[in-house]
Each structure stands twice: as C-alpha cells, then as structure tokens.
C-alpha cells in the first residue's frame, strides 16, 4: 500500500537523492519480500548492478532500517493523498493549544470588541449605497464565521452561539447549512477537526468585488479604525477586484454559496481546449466549434425551412479546417483504433445518420424502464452508448445487466473451442461467442458494498463499477467475470466514468480526490487534489483531455489530464453537486445539485451561463441530446424536464442573457420546453440513443 | 442506539442547534450499563460530545443516502458512515421501514422510545413457508411520445384528481388559466409566445371536447364490449374502465351512454343490459383517477331507476331482477359515501326518496323492495330511523300476498323477497334497540305479520357470535332459483371487491350470462350503440363548453316533452342554461325529491323511446 502511494507521488525521486547504501539496503529488502517489479524498476533507475546488491549484508539492512525507524515514521511514510489531511494530522500532533492560539490571533481577545466591530460593519453595509450594498454584504459571512471561531477558540461557547444566533438572519439562506455544521462545534479542540474550519483557515475566502466597492470597504476600515475586521480581512479574505459596475443582488448570489467563496480570476485563466478532437479515420466525425450556429434573427419562426436543419447538424457536416479550440490529437496518448473499433464507429455513424432532429417543435420520445422488485435498492443505472444494455448497481453490492434488445448476452466459448476458430475470419466477433449461453440478464457479484456507479467502455466489452468498499472493478462483458480490481481510494468511491475514447477512466471518492486511471495499470495516473470535501461526481470531456468534478464543497472543477492541474473553478451551487454533463460541442458543462438547480457553465472562461430552476429535489441525472439541441434533466422529484439548450447558447453568444437579465424577468421558464412527471418513480439515469430517443431508468416507489 | 432517549428540553430549543443529550439521559444510559456514579459535569460533557458525534455520523449517513439516490436515511447508511470512521457498525439493527418513535409523558418528563416487541421464535420456526422474494425485473413503457405523455396506467394521470375537482366545482377556472395552462397540457408551440407580443383581444375560448380518433375508437370498443355478448371481453373492458387513467375526457359520453341505456332498457325490460350498465357504473366508480361528481346527475337517476323501477325484466315472476336491485343499491350506497358533502346533501336526498316510497301504500311491491334494499345499504342508522318504524306497515302490505290470498304469483315472490330482505337487515339493529327478553307477542304487536319471524332472527342473532351478524352486502342474495338466478350470483361475485374499493371488478369467467344474453333480441343492443354513436357525432358537430350537461339537459327536456308527467320536466328545463354540472345536479335532485318515488318511476317508465328520440339532432 505504502509503496503504491510513494510511486504515485513521485517517491522515487526522494529515494534517489539518498545515500547509495540506504538504497542498496532498500533493494535488498525488496528482494527479501519478493517485490520483483519494484526492485527491477529501482535498479534500472538507480543504475545499480546485481553485484553491488550482493555486497550488502543482512546486518547492514538492519542497521539502516534501525536508523530510519529512529528518525521517526513521519519521514518514511509517504504524504497522505490530500494535503488537507496532512495539515490536519500535523496540526493534531502539534500542540493543540498552539494551534488554537492562531485562531485567537492575539492574547488580548475581547469578545465584546469583536461583536461591536461586526455590528459596525453590518451597519456600514446596510447604510451603503444600493449599488454597492450587495457586493459589500458578501463580506459579512466570512467575517461572522471567523469571529465565531475566535470566540470558540477561547472557550466562550455560549457567547459564540448567541453571536451567531443574533446575526444569522442577515445571511442568505444557502449559508445556513454551513452554519449549522459550524454550530455543532462546542469545544475549541473540535475547531481543528472540522473540514469547513480547516478549509477557511487554509485558503483565503475569495470575494469578488468591483474596485469601487472594494475601495469603499477599505476606506471604512481605515476611517473607523476597525482593527479587528482589518485583521481578519488581512488574514482570511482575498478580494478579487475588477473594473466596472458593482453587481446587483442576483449577480452576487448566482456565484456565491461555495465554502471557499468565489472563484478567483486566475483560477480560470488557463486556456482550455474545449473543442472536439479531429478523428483521424473518420473525417465525418469531426465537429465544428460551437460557434453561433445560425444568424437567424428570430429562431422561433415556425416556418423556417426544415431542410436547413440536417445541414447544420454539427456531427454530420464536414469541416475542412481544424477547430482552433480543439487540442491536438496527440495531446494525450489515445489508444489506437482496432479494426473492430472502426467497425463499431462506422455502425454508430450509420445509426447517427438516421437521427431525429430535435428542437422546440420536435420533442423526443422517451421510454421508461422501471426496475421492479428492487426493494428500493437501486443505487445507479447506466445505459451503454449503443443503447443495447443497461447495467444497474444495487445496494446489496450486486450489479445486474439486462439486454435491451432481443439479442442475448452471450459468453465466450471455451478455450479449446476458441483455439479452433479462424482468427482472420470476418465474423470472428460473432463466432467466438457461445450461442447456447445467451441470457437476457446477468449478475456481477464481487463488491462488498453498495455499487454507486457503473460505466460501460465505449467498445462495449468492459464495464467499470465503483463501490462503497473503496474499490473499482473492471468486468468483462465477454467472459462475464471480474477482470481487475483497482485499489487506490481509501474511502467509498462515489463515481467512475470511462473516457469517450476508452482506455482511461476517472473515479472520485469520499477521500476528496479524483483519480485518473488507465485500464492496464493498477495505479492511478493522476490524482486530482483540491476539493475541500467529497468529490461526488466526475465526467470526462468529450475530447478525453479534461475531467470535470463536482464536490460537496459546492464547487465544480475542471482538471487537465495532461498536467493534472485544476484549470477551471466554478462556484455558484448552493448544495453539493450531484450530476455533471458536457454539452455535445464540448464548450459547455451542465451541473445539477442537491439545491435543485441546474447551472450551465461556459468552459472557455469558466463563467456561469444560466441557472435552470424547475426541479424541486436533487437533480440526479443530466444529459444532452445527441445533436446538442436539448438538455434533459431528472431527479428525485419524479420529474423529467426538457430544456431548449439551443436557445440558451444562442442567447448567450449573442449576449442576450446575463445572469441578472434572465432572472429579473421573473420568467425562468423561457428555456423550459416541457416537464413530464413520472408515476412516483424517481429517476436514476437518462440516456439519449444515437437516434435521439430518450431512455429513462427509474424505480417505482410504492 | 435503540435505547431510550430523553429529549433535551432544558438546552436550546432553537432549530439551529438541534437537541443535545441532556445530562439526565446520559446518567440513565450510564446506569443501564452499570455505571452508577457519574458526576453532573461528566454527564454534561459526555452528552455534548456524544451529540456532536452522532450528528456527524448522521451528516455522513446523509451523503450515503444521497449517493444511493434516496431521500430517506436507512440504517445501512448509518452503518456505512460508522465504517468510514473506522467504528464497528451496529450489527443486527435492520429494518426496512421507519421505526416509529413512541412518545410518553409522566412525572413531568417526556420520553421517546421505540417499541420492542417480543418475538416468539417458535412461531417463526413453525412457519416454514417462507416466500422467496420476487426477482428484480425491468419493465418498459412509453413515457413520452414525441413530446406528449400517453395516458397509460404506468404514467401519472394527465389531470390530477384535485384539478378535476377544482374543475367540477369552479368551471370558470378553465377560462382564467386560458393561455398559460399549456405547460401542463398540450405541448408549447411558438404561436403562443408570439401571441403575447401582439396586442390581442382576449376572446373567450371555446372549450373543445373533441375526442381523438383513438379515443373515439376506444369509446366504441368499450361500449360495445360492455353491453355485448362476449363475457371475457366485457371483463377486459370493465377492467380498463376501472383502472385506466386519462378517461376523464370521454367521461361525459360514458355517463350519457349509461343514462340513455338505462332509460331505453328499463322500457324494454332488458334485465341483462341493465346489469351490464350498472357494472359499467361500478367500474367508473372504482377508477381512482376519475372524479365523477360532475356526472352524478346522470348516474344517480339511472342507478335509482335500477333500484326502484316497477318492472325491470320481461318475466318478473321468474327473472332475478332482485339481484340487480341489490347491486344497484350497493352502488348507490357507494356513491353516497364517496360524494356526499355538506352542500349537496346527497345521502339525505337519496334517503328521502326511498323513505317516501315506504310511506306510500300504493307503491308497487318491487319498488318497495328496492326502497328497502336501498335504505338498508345506507347503514344501520338509516335502517333504524326509516325501516323499523315502517315494519308494521310493510307487514300489512305483504301479509295478504304471503298468506296466499293474492292471485298474482309475481306479488307473492316480491313479498317473499321483501320478507327475506327485512329479516336480513333488521335483526342486528333490533338486537340493539330492544330490551333483552325477546317475546314473540310483543314483536307481533309491534311489527305485525313479520313480528314472530323477526323475533326468531333476533334471538338467533343474540346467540350467534358478534362478527357473524354484521350486515354484509354479500349475504342478501337469497333469491329463489329462477332462470336469471345465475346472473344474480354473477353480480354477487362482482360485488366482492366493493368492500375493498381499490380492486377493479374483474370477472374472469361468467359463461352463464352469455346464455341469458342469447335469449335477448339482438336489436335492442343495436339501439343502444346506435344511440351512442349518433350522439357522439352530434356532439362533435356542436362544439360547446361543458358539453355534456347541455346536451343532456336537452335530451331530458325532450323526454319531458313526451312524458305526461310535466311536473318533473319544468325543473329540468329551467336548469338548461346552467353551466355547472354540480348546480344542475342539485336542482334536478331537488326537483326529484319533491316527487314521491312513484312518480320518479313513472317518469322513467313512461319514456317509450321512439326511434327519433335517440337522434338528438332534430332538437337543434
């Protein structure tokens, strides 16, 4: 376990710098424990010959080991995956009192003074001009919380509570949950143990503010000699100022709500190649950039010639020049296409040509698959890309696959029979399967906890599943057995997704990390660290170069698979993020949350496009139609909503909507096409077939 | 964990903090595990500590339930959140359902606890027939077809019962909703958005009640199957009527079909068809997605006719029309129970009609039977107030027939049925009303001819175990075997789900009825369907809001014009301009209630439906 960790974190580098003797001892030790591959690798990297190794005696090893143990475990132990935790453990081990002193700041802490300071600040915000008021009010929450921490740190529990109780009504509703979490704290020691506290301690709380508001705020602090506030501001707040008009209430609220404030501008400065890859073999698969698709003045003219539509269909139109926003095809190494894969792609393409064009006037048909007799144990469901199979994960750790077509689920023939087959024959894929073994449903047993997500490989021969037992399993859909178990996460794994080009997959966990894996390695290729709370969902970008994650810290991040860096940070959700979906064009990201909202983000700059509000409970699944014109979302409120995504992007690109504009009108239904209630059946997943038929999976709640 | 939790009442009551384990609870828990002396401070500290830990565990458990796409936290979620914290899960606490907290107070203290029943192991071991749980299966249905949700049972009903109710109570609401209603109903089209921008005059919209081709086909199929001769098909049709959502659009037509059918067939004395029509009423009543209040004005007179009509069959002395009367009585009771409100006084009015029949000494014996049957279904209190005081009078009427002085055989059977009915329904009530020693002479003086037999029945009832003598709707079937007796048992079987309400009347095999049907002249059946079709085509032509009440009133008026009894016609005529079904119902029923039961029957009897009456177009 520890070795795996050290490898992922580049532990080899540390070892190389060490004394050669120690290295040799280590090699000896590896040999002793028969860790062959590691030994070989290390030998190669350190240029150690076998002769050197034999010179080291057993006693030397003992000596070195003894010395290392004497130094303390801390050095040898690899760092924990999450720096937050490292900090936490370090802090706990350090003198708690010392750590607490940090909260208090100075010895002469006076609760009364702090309360007075807050009161002053509050009245300052209240009395400020209306245009600045809302921006200024955003500073209240972090300062309130910091004062609370200080009060708690010196043990004035009752006072601290009374303080929060007194002022909590000032805050917007979405902060209350966070506050509730904080109010659980009663003892100073617990401060050091709380995620939220540590998060606020570690990172400065980011507040976006116009320059005018900010200078107004600074002047207030200077004029009124607000040392207490000034101190907190200096320590815990970061102001991200911008030129221009101060934002109004709605604009402020739209991006607020995260546990770490708003995204800084430099968080989203990195360039993101959001365009789709230019496929080598199939030119027809290329997609143009999601530029404004038409310049029609009124997109709603009903008598618009229908012929135009298929022409504009991005998937089918040939684009000669490459998309400037697309990453180069070899930016990350992709698996080479096998002949069978090409056949699959051709088939997919042929299917796609029969696709129904959807739009405002042409809504899709939907078929609903109800899982019956499940005892409410369905935790996830997944429909394969070619819509032939559905996989359901259950709370009883089993996975069940159903064939949705008359074709049976067949298994491979026996090895002997396989050997006899002519491997060059055209229909080898069919002939290698045993006709007698066909079944309409099959079970996978292997996990030891609820299965939280399944993912079909794009080639339809593999299935990934992740579970509460902190493992990810890869199953073969030909032999119908478990092929690999990936261990790496140390806590329940919430989500797993296959890359659209296969080979890679990404997972995320309770341990606050998301990891990128490849199917042929049992170690993660990248560990994406940065979220402050559970990473609840992940999604691969259609070009396989990026991964989006949604977390319980109420943020959505986009990570670059090449560098492992966070390239976008998007705040605005007021609850943990529960569903993610990339638009077909790759430029937009839709995220659903437990706060019942769906937010559309523009990945080119990380800005919020619009908020779609209609659901009354957690949004569990979001999907885009294959032609990218519709967005379908569904959730635990037993409702399926269809949104006109085409209109959203049109309006966004022609600058018709800003966050405020759209909500000011008090007409949030402009993009909503229809709502379909189900009969007491919460939705588990949605899927568009290649021909744009919508498939829903749900369970009936009696 | 399942221990007794005392709620902290002293600490903060604020929602934000939630509750904290009080020191007392900690002490109680400590005692329960044998720690006798726990200082106050320690208990307090411990209480706070535990509260925080528990809340954290629950917070984590919420994450697990979220990821399992549930909104309810289960015990397994708590287990998993313990596991994440490296705490041993609480093994053995498994429950699929909520564990309800019971609450008790005493000595100024509040106690919440869970009930822990003792389980008899021997019972479990003896019970070896453990059911294998059903296998998980996948079932598919069309959820949306090109943007429109089909009305299949798997989908929610297109119009919720609430909105149907609102619709029936306040029809104007439809107008107010006008343009913006489309989000729920028909798909949005670009046109509507355009209208918003252009300056338009709000023209009162015509509510169209057109049926789609599919619905017309369905109506035709269903009505034909319901009154046709194919019994399995009828079963399916009734099942469809009883369970399909989305029938509300053709409900007016269905009700008219039933009302017209009853009118025609009462005149024709076609017992079988009347039974089929009543079974349709039954199916509609059973359909959980329908709200029938708007159509009661058609259904109630029809059902009432089937209860109290003087003659319902060709050979009253042989055919078992009693079963129809019983069945219809049960329907009436069900209607009263479901739709009676303070404003419509349905039950009062129905009761009044029945009881008037009991007052009148000229009431035909069949009608008398119907009235008694109708009243007896309405409950013990009704029997007590309306039937028992009239027992002597009824005895007087049936006595001559039963003692053989009557010439008519028909009257004799009728009298026999009345006696059987009274002996079924009265003893349980009499048992409670009268003092213990049951003396036959007293009974005789009080109730006349029926006295002695009632006395016997009461004595028997007193001796029998309590649960045997409750009035069951199924026990009234004591008809002698006649040619239609099998029909009666058939209906009797149909009524079995009536006590359960949710079941739809599925009668899988009733071959006897087919035999009966073959006796009927086929052209009667044709008349009914023809009538329905013509009406349908006529209504498609005349588009009118509220549809059914209007055309129905017209037909009612036309019937009235043909009847000699103009008394009732004036009432119907007056309400023709009213839109609301509810008000129509009330005025019509009020009107009825001023008549005695006899004239009500006369009204339906006199309608000798001439062929041209069925064709309503001549009224235009």
TrEMBL record, chain A:
Per its record, what are the GO molecular function terms?
Answer: RNA polymerase II general transcription initiation factor activity
Give the source species: Drosophila pseudoobscura pseudoobscura (Fruit fly)
Alphabetical UniProt keywords: Nucleus, Repeat, Transcription, Transcription regulation, WD repeat
Statement: the UniProt record of this protein carries the keyword Nucleotide-binding: no
> Which parts of the chain are WD repeats?
371-412, 444-485, 486-527, 528-569, 570-611, 612-644
Belongs to which family?
Belongs to the WD repeat TAF5 family.
Matching SUPFAM superfamilies: Taf5 N-terminal domain-like, WD40 repeat-like
Q: Which domain of life is it from?
A: Eukaryota
Stored Gene3D superfamilies? TFIID subunit TAF5, NTD2 domain (1.25.40.500), YVTN repeat-like/Quinoprotein amine dehydrogenase (2.130.10.10)
The Basic and acidic residues compositionally biased stretches are 312-322
The UniProt record lists the TFIID subunit TAF5 NTD2 domain at: 110-237
**Keyword Lyase recorded:** no
Stretch list, region Disordered: 285-334
Output this protein's name: Transcription initiation factor TFIID subunit 5
What's a single GO BP term from this record? transcription initiation at RNA polymerase II promoter
Q: Which Pfam families match?
A: TFIID_NTD2, WD40
Q: Which GO terms describe its cellular component?
A: transcription factor TFIID complex
Compartment(s): Nucleus
UniProtKB/TrEMBL annotation, chain B:
**Which locations, inside or outside the cell, does it occupy?**
Nucleus
Instruction: Please give the family membership noted in the entry.
Output: Belongs to the TAF6 family.
Give the superkingdom in one word. Answer: Eukaryota
Q: Which Gene3D superfamilies match?
A: Histone, subunit A, TAF6, C-terminal HEAT repeat domain
- GO MF, any single term: RNA polymerase II general transcription initiation factor activity
The protein in question is named: Transcription initiation factor TFIID subunit 6
Q: Which CDD domains match?
A: HFD_TAF6, TAF6C
Of the GO CC terms on this record, one is: transcription factor TFIID complex
Annotated InterPro entries:
ARM-type_fold, Histone-fold, TAF6, TAF6_C, TAF6_C_sf, TAF_TATA-bd_Histone-like_dom
Q: Which GO terms describe its biological process?
A: RNA polymerase II preinitiation complex assembly
Please tell me the species this chain comes from: Drosophila pseudoobscura pseudoobscura
């Amino acid at each position: 376990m520890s070795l795996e960790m050290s490898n992922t974190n580049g532990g080899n580098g540390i070892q190389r710098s060490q004394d050669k003797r120690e290295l040799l001892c280590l090699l000896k030790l590896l040999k002793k424990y028969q860790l062959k591959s590691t030994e070989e690798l290390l030998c190669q990297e350190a240029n150690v010959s076998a002769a050197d190794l034999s010179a080291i005696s057993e006693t030397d090893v003992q000596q070195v080991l003894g010395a290392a143990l004497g130094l303390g475990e801390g050095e040898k132990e690899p760092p924990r995956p999450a720096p937050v935790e490292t900090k936490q453990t370090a802090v706990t081990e350090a003198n708690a009192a010392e750590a607490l002193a940090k909260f208090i700041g100075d010895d002469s802490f006076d609760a009364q003074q702090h309360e007075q300071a807050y009161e002053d600040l509050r009245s300052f915000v209240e009395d400020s001009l209306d245009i600045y008021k809302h921006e200024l009010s955003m500073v209240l929450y972090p300062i309130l919380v910091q004062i609370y921490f200080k009060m708690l740190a010196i043990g004035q529990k009752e006072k601290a509570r009374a303080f929060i109780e007194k002022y909590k009504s000032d805050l917007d509703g979405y902060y209350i949950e966070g506050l509730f979490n904080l109010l659980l704290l009663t003892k100073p020691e617990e401060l050091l143990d709380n995620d939220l506290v540590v998060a606020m301690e570690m990172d400065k709380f980011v507040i976006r503010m116009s320059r005018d508001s900010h200078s107004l705020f600074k002047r207030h602090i200077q004029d009124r000699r607000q040392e207490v506030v000034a101190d907190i501001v200096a320590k815990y707040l970061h102001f991200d100022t911008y030129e221009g008009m101060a934002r109004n209430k709605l604009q402020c609220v739209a991006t607020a709500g995260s546990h770490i404030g708003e995204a800084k501008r430099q968080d989203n400065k990195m360039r993101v190649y959001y365009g789709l890859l230019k496929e080598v073999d199939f030119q027809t698969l290329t997609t143009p950039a999601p530029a404004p698709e038409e310049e029609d003045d009124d997109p709603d003219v009903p008598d618009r010639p229908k012929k135009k539509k298929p022409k504009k269909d991005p998937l089918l139109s040939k684009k000669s020049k490459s998309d400037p926003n697309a990453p180069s095809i070899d930016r990350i190494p992709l698996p080479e296409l096998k002949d069978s894969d090409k056949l699959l792609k051709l088939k997919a393409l042929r299917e796609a040509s029969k696709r129904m064009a959807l739009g405002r006037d042409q809504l899709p048909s939907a078929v609903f698959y109800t899982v019956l007799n499940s005892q409410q144990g369905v935790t996830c469901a997944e429909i394969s890309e070619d819509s032939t199979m559905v996989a359901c994960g259950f709370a009883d750790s089993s996975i069940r696959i159903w064939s949705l077509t008359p074709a049976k689920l067949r298994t491979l023939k026996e090895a002997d029979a396989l050997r006899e087959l002519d491997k060059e024959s055209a229909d080898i894929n069919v002939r290698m399967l045993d006709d007698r073994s066909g079944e309409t449903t099959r079970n996978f047993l292997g996990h030891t906890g609820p299965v939280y997500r399944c993912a079909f490989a794009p080639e339809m021969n593999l299935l990934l599943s992740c579970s509460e037992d902190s493992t990810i399993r890869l199953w073969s859909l030909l032999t119908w057995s478990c092929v690999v178990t990936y261990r790496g996460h140390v806590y329940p794994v919430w989500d797993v997704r296959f890359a659209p080009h296969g080979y890679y997959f990404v997972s995320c966990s309770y341990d606050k990390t998301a990891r990128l894996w490849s199917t042929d390695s049992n170690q993660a290729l990248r560990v994406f660290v940065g979220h402050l709370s559970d990473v609840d969902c992940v999604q691969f970008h259609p070009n396989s170069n990026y991964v989006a994650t949604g977390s319980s810290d109420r943020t959505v991040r986009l990570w670059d698979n090449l560098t492992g860096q966070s390239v976008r940070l998007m705040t605005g959700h007021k609850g943990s993020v529960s569903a993610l979906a990339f638009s077909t064009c790759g430029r937009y990201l839709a995220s659903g949350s437990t706060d019942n909202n769906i937010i559309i983000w523009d990945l080119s700059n990380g800005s919020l496009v619009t908020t779609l509000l209609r659901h009354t409970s957690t949004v569990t699944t979001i999907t885009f139609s294959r032609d990218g014109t519709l967005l379908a979302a569904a959730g635990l409120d037993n409702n399926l909503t269809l949104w006109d995504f085409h209109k959203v992007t049109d309006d966004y690109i022609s600058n018709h909507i800003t966050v405020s504009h759209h909500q000011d009108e008090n007409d949030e239904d402009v993009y909503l096409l229809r709502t379909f209630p189900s009969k007491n059946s919460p939705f588990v997943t949605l899927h568009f077939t290649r021909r744009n038929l919508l498939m829903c999976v749900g369970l009936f709640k009696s | 964990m399942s221990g007794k939790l005392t709620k902290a009442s002293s600490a903060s009551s604020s929602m934000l903090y939630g509750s904290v384990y009080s020191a007392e609870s900690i002490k109680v828990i400590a005692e329960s595990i044998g720690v006798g002396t726990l200082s106050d401070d320690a208990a307090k500290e411990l209480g706070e500590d535990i509260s925080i830990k528990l809340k954290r565990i629950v917070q984590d458990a919420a994450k697990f339930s979220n990821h399992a796409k549930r909104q309810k936290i289960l015990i397994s979620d708590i287990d998993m959140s313990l596991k994440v914290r490296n705490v041993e899960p609480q093994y053995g606490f498994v429950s699929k359902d909520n564990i309800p907290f019971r609450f008790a107070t005493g000595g100024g203290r509040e106690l919440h606890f869970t009930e822990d029943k003792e389980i008899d192991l021997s019972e479990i071991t003896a019970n070896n027939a453990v059911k294998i749980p059903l296998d998980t299966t996948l079932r598919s249905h069309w959820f949306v077809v090109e943007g429109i949700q089909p009305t299949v049972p798997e989908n929610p009903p297109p119009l919720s019962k609430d909105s149907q109710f609102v619709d029936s109570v306040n029809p104007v609401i439809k107008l107010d909703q006008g343009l913006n209603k489309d989000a729920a109903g028909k798909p949005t089209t670009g046109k509507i958005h355009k209208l918003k921008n252009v300056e338009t005059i709000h023209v009162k919209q015509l509510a169209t009640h057109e049926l789609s081709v599919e619905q017309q086909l369905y109506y035709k199929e269903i009505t034909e199957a319901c009154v046709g001769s194919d019994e399995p098909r009828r079963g399916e049709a009734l099942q469809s009527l009883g369970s399909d959502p989305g029938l509300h659009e053709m409900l007016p037509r269905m009700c008219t079909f039933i009302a017209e059918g009853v009118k025609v067939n009462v005149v024709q004395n076609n017992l079988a068809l009347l039974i089929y029509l009543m079974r349709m009423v039954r199916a509609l009543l059973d359909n959980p997605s329908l709200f029938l209040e708007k159509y009661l004005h058609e259904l109630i007179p029809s059902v009432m006719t089937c209860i109290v009509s003087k003659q319902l069959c060709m050979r009253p002395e042989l055919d078992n029309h009693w079963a129809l009367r019983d069945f219809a009585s049960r329907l009436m009771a069900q209607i009263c129970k479901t739709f009676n409100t303070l404003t419509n006084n349905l039950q009062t009015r129905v009761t009044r009609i029945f009881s008037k029949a009991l007052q009148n000494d000229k009431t035909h014996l069949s009608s008398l039977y119907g009235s008694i049957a109708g009243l007896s279904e309405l409950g013990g209190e009704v029997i007590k107030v309306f039937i028992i005081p009239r027992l002597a009078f009824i005895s007087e009427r049936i006595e001559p027939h039963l003692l053989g002085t009557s010439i008519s055989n028909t009257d004799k059977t009728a009298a026999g049925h009345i006696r059987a009915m009274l002996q079924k329904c009265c003893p349980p009530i009499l048992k409670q009303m009268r003092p213990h020693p049951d003396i036959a002479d007293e009974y005789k003086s009080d109730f006349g001819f029926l006295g002695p037999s009632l006395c016997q029945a009461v004595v028997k009832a007193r001796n029998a175990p309590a649960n045997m003598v409750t009035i069951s709707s199924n026990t009234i079937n004591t008809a002698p075997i006649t040619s239609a007796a099998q029909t009666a048992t058939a209906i009797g079987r149909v009524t079995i789900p009536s006590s359960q309400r949710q079941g739809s009347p599925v009668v899988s095999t009733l071959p006897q009825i087919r035999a009966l049907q073959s006796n009927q002249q086929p052209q009667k059946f044709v008349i009914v369907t023809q009538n329905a079709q013509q009406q349908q085509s006529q209504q498609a032509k005349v588009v009118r809001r509220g549809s059914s009440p209007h055309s129905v009133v017209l037909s009612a008026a036309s019937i009235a014009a043909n009847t000699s009894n103009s008394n009732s016609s004036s009432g119907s005529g007056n309400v023709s301009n009213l839109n609301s079904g509810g008000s129509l119902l009330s005025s019509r029923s009020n009107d009825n209630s001023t008549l005695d039961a006899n004239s009500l029957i006369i009204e339906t009897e006199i309608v000798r439906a001439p062929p041209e009456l069925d064709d309503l177009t001549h009224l235009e």
